[in-house]
Design a protein that fits this description.
This protein is mostly helical and 157 residues long. 30% of the residues lie in helices and 5% in strands. It contains four helices and two strands, in the order βαβααα.
């Protein structure tokens, strides 16, 4: 039951499920044998399954819920290239080399995702339109540059 504090039109499901609802594969027969069994149908599980299948091995993906219905479906479709690591101060206190590796890994993951979408011709509606750095505490206004109109380039920090 939906809380009465929500608007009557509120739906708990993401709006994109209207066009692409999660699949219920619970009635599907399981293969008798596979080379690789992936547990979880989120971004990581499906990406691992795709790479294993491309390598020529048989793959099955299992999930306790609906396929595509878990946490990965609630990301709002936002991906980034590392600024969250900087803005949330996750890197603060790390040795410089570890912070650099974390940023490089984040950027590499972003590039991998863009390449995956292009290579697989995924209907992901990826649009690289810039960045929004919201301030959710007064200190962010004090430490954040006021003009971040560029859409690419090195991250702050």
């Amino acid at each position: 039951m939906i809380d009465r504090s929500f608007h009557p039109d509120f739906k708990a499901e993401p709006y994109w499920w209207d066009a692409a609802p999660p699949e219920d594969a619970s009635g599907e027969a399981l293969p008798e044998r596979v080379d690789v069994l992936i547990v979880g149908s989120g971004f990581a599980g499906l990406s691992a399954a795709l790479e294993a299948a491309r390598a020529g091995v048989s793959v099955a993906v299992l999930d306790s819920g609906l396929l595509g219905g878990g946490a990965s479906s609630r990301s709002g479709g936002m991906v980034s290239s590392g600024q969250k690591l900087v803005l949330t101060e996750v890197l603060r206190g790390l040795p410089a080399i570890k912070a650099q590796v974390a940023l490089e890994d984040s950027r590499a993951t972003f590039e991998f995702l863009k390449d995956l979408i292009a290579r697989e011709r995924l209907d992901a509606d990826l649009q690289l339109v810039g960045r929004f750095f919201g301030a959710f505490a007064p200190k962010h206004l004090e430490t954040s540059p006021q003009d971040r109109s560029e859409n690419s380039g090195p991250l702050p920090g």
